[in-house]
Design goal:
Elements lengths: L7 H32 L3 H36 L9 E5 L4 E4 L16 H15 L1 E6 L4 E7 L4 E7 L9 H5 L5 E4 L5 E4 L1 H6 L21 E3 L6 E7 L6 E7 L20 E5 L5 E4 L1 H7 L13 E3 L4 H9 L7 E8 L2 E14 L2 E10 L1 H46 L6 H26 L8 E3 L1 H15 L4 E7 L6 E3 L1 H17 L5 E12 L3 E3 L2 E3 L2 E10 L6 H4 L19 H12 L2 E5 L7 E7 L26 E5 L3 H13 L3 E5 L2 H8 L8 E5 L7 H9 L6 E6 L17 E4 L4 H13 L1
Parallel strand pairs: 18-20, 26-27, 26-28, 28-29, 29-30
Antiparallel strand pairs: 1-2, 1-5, 3-4, 4-5, 6-7, 6-10, 8-9, 9-10, 11-12, 11-16, 13-14, 14-15, 15-16, 17-19, 20-23, 21-22, 23-25, 24-25
Helix pairs in contact: 1-2, 8-9, 8-14, 9-13, 10-11, 11-13, 14-17, 15-16
């Protein structure tokens, strides 16, 4: 077979390359010479000839240096196997022999081991150059040829005879210059040479304690504990369930492109190397921080994390088969008792001659948290829109029920037997209306009428009602901070917030306790981050409602303000109390948070912006409107309402008070009626939300020809979106649904007399 000093093939390759270079240089010289003759100058070809001479000398120097390097370096490395009883060869990447140990024949290479040595050398060198390791059965008797990379330009070949070999005596390995140790089947070290005793930490009890990156991988690259020396672990065949391990040192240039796991330790990217079945081979520091303390070699990664879509085992199988390489998916795990989410991408690779998988991990917990917050906000918005829509439709029903109840009450006095039944209908309709107002408060679509108030005065007036809400076992204590700043809120709605929180506190203390309401001023110098909200710097009035109950479980705190979510027993609550309080506070411009220390009850904290007296001028005091006692009147009313029941009641109510009523079921129908110029419409009463043209749209069109007509809008939504302002209807009045017969006729008369 081929030897580096005498192999014609290798020399031929070198000569061919040099000849090609010289040929190119000669062609360049010839061209330049012809050019010089043509131009009458010989200076150019002379200069090129000199350059060619220098270049040839440079090539000769490179070849001589390569031979000297090949003649000296291999002798040192092959010396590590001088006492090995089996043949060991050192070759270049093409299989040309550079050196051999004493057990190897003086001539030849693989003759007698392989049937077709040339083909085998081609296969093995091609595989080992691609993967770093290769092996092949040697002949029919069960021998084996193993090849591994030993640096970027050389290969280590070991030939193992069939049936193993007699163990090299420990004395022959004791003088080896490289670390050597012998370990039993359990990995306990039974013998080692002076090089291992000097370079490895002592006492050395186990084989894995000699490595920075266990477990041992035969023919793999490792880092020795203590010295940090990169080595290749060469496992020699042995007997009696014991094995000899030589740690062949590798120079820095020899491990270029063969990155051992140790070099990945300090990378800021979390990387893990896995067996094809998912067992962990190595995880760097960043990966161990993400995967937790259980991330040790041998543990299956599917036991550490779970896929949210596909299982981890399914992803590992696809990656091993070359499918979905590098695709990142989210997985869930646990680290330090906390749930975490990881972006995990798998790809396959071949290291140390064996196929393996590489996992790249990144912390996606914050991303998933933001995603959950976004989904939660979308859900709350969707539920709010649903609640507003339900409230609008329900208000129409309540308006019809209340209205027709009023019409019946007009024909039955108190002495009638049906009067009590009608009053029960009205009372229950009013209770339903209160429930609708809670839905609107949650969806923040109710009408607020904020005023500047002192919380101290408001809570003092509310004390009597709060005490009536509490049982005899529950006491109420109110504490005020000094010089409370005023706030601008809807007083009635804020009272509803306090009552809801107090009732919630009462229900949390079935055996009795204390409800404490405290107020204070607070100035924030910087942003306050709480839950998913950010409270901006400024002056606030803080209201706390605390109880001495059992508190709220931690897993339920995040859902406590969701509509229809309740921790009470079935039938004891609607789940709207806290969501209503949340909606009112947010619509007011404030913030509400909840804390529940274990065993210490719950504390609801409300931040309301303090009213700045100098920044905003107080709104003018609205003159008290004299409520007319006589609700009868005269005039033509155009009533536009898409709900038949509401339109029927409203028309009858106005007609009973003396008004002439023209009815329309849509905005388009109303505009069609107004085309009759002979009609003198005094006032237009219209619903806001209707199919086709809504209330404001058709009223704007109508006012182009009838600017003097008065307008009253009726709706279950807040009036802000369509009454007043640049996009609203000027001088329009608003009547919230559900309304009663007196309220409707009174509002119409007020507008006509204004």
């Amino acid at each position: 077979m081929r030897e580096r000093g005498s192999t014609q093939g290798i020399e031929g390759v070198g000569d061919a390359r040099s000849g090609a270079l010289l040929l190119l240089a000669g062609a360049g010289l010839l061209t330049s010479t012809l050019t010089g003759i043509w131009s009458g100058s010989v200076a150019v070809p002379t200069a090129l000839a000199v350059a060619l001479l220098v270049f040839g000398l440079y090539l000769a120097g490179l070849r001589l240096a390569g031979r000297l390097s090949a003649a000296t370096a291999p002798d040192r490395r092959i010396g590590y196997f001088a006492s090995h009883p089996e043949p060991v060869y050192l070759t270049d990447l093409d299989g040309a022999v550079l050196a051999r140990n004493p057990a190897a024949p003086a001539t030849g290479f693989l003759e007698g081991w392989l049937a077709d040595p040339r083909a085998a050398i081609y296969r093995l060198t091609r595989e080992v150059r691609a993967t770093g390791f290769a092996e092949e059965e040697a002949g029919p008797n069960g021998g084996r040829v193993t090849v591994s990379r030993l640096g970027p330009r050389s290969l280590l070949w070991r030939l193992d005879r069939p049936g193993g070999c007699s163990r090299p005596p420990a004395a022959s390995l004791a003088d080896t210059a490289v670390p050597w140790l012998r370990a039993d089947a359990g990995g306990r070290v039974t013998a080692l040479n002076p090089a291992a005793a000097q370079g490895l930490p002592q006492p050395l009890e186990t084989l894995e304690s000699a490595l920075v990156d266990p477990p041992l991988r035969p023919d793999g690259i490792h880092i020795l504990a203590g010295s940090g020396q990169p080595v290749r672990a060469v496992v020699l065949p042995g007997q009696d369930s014991q094995r000899d391990v030589l740690f062949v040192p590798l120079a820095g240039d020899e491990i270029a492109g063969l990155v051992p796991d140790h070099f990945l330790e300090e990378l800021p990217v979390a990387l893990a190397r896995l067996e094809t079945d998912g067992r962990l081979i190595y995880a760097n520091r960043a990966a161990r921080q993400l995967l937790g303390e259980r991330a040790e070699p041998g543990v299956n990664i599917s036991d550490l994390i779970e896929g949210l879509g596909r299982s981890i085992r399914e992803r590992l199988s696809d990656t091993s088969k070359g499918r979905a390489l590098g695709r990142s998916e989210v997985a869930r795990g646990t680290a330090d008792g906390q749930e975490i989410f990881l972006q995990v991408a798998f790809t396959r690779t071949v290291l140390d001659g064996a196929p393996s998988l590489l996992a790249v991990l990144s912390d996606a917990t914050e991303l998933k948290t933001l995603e959950a917050q976004f989904v939660q906000s979308q859900k709350m918005q969707a539920v709010g829109q649903l609640a507003g829509g339900v409230a609008h439709d329900f208000n129409n029903l309540l308006t019809a029920i209340n209205g027709h109840c009023d019409l019946l009450l007009m024909r039955h006095d108190v002495a009638d037997t049906e009067h009590g039944d009608l009053m029960q209908i009205r009372q229950n309709a009013n209770r339903a209306a209160a429930l609708v107002r809670q839905l609107l408060a949650f969806s923040r679509k109710q009408t607020l009428r904020p005023t500047i108030i002192s919380l101290q005065d408001t809570l003092s007036e509310l004390t009597h009602l709060l005490n009536r809400l509490l049982t005899e076992k529950v006491t109420l204590r109110i504490e005020h901070g000094p010089d409370l700043n005023p706030v601008r809120v809807d007083e009635r709605q804020f009272e509803q917030v306090i009552m809801n929180l107090v009732v919630n506190a009462r229900d949390a203390m079935p055996r009795g306790g204390e409800v404490r309401i405290s107020t204070r001023n607070e100035h924030l110098d910087r942003d306050l981050h709480r839950d998913r909200a950010v409270v901006l710097p400024g002056d606030y009035v803080v209201v706390e409602v605390a109880d001495s109950g059992t508190g709220i479980p931690k897993d339920k705190l995040a859902k406590i303000f969701e509509p229809f979510y309740t921790t009470k027993q079935v039938g004891e609550g609607t789940g709207l109390g806290l969501s209503t309080a949340y909606g009112i506070v947010k619509q007011t411009g404030g913030f509400i948070f909840v804390d529940s220390p274990p065993g210490q009850g719950a504390v609801f904290t409300i931040y309301l912006p303090a009213y700045e007296k100098t920044a905003i001028a107080p709104p003018p005091v609205e003159p008290e409107i004299r409520r007319p006692r006589d609700l009868s009147g005269r005039g033509l009313v155009l009533l536009v309402e898409d709900e038949d029941a509401v339109r029927s009641f409203a028309a009858r109510a106005l007609q009973l008070r003396g008004y002439t009523v023209m009815e329309a079921a849509s905005g388009e129908e109303a505009l069609e009626i107004l085309k009759d110029e002979s009609l003198n419409v005094d006032i237009m009463v219209s619903d806001v939300i209707m199919p086709g043209l809504d209330g404001p749209a058709w009223v704007r069109e109508a006012r182009r020809t009838r600017p003097e007509a008065k307008v009253v809008f009726v709706s279950g939504y807040a009036e802000d979106a369509f009454v007043g302002g640049d996009s609203g209807i000027p001088d329009a009045s608003f009547l919230p649904k559900p309304f009663t017969l007196p309220e409707l006729t009174q509002k119409v008369k007020e507008m006509l007399e204004a």
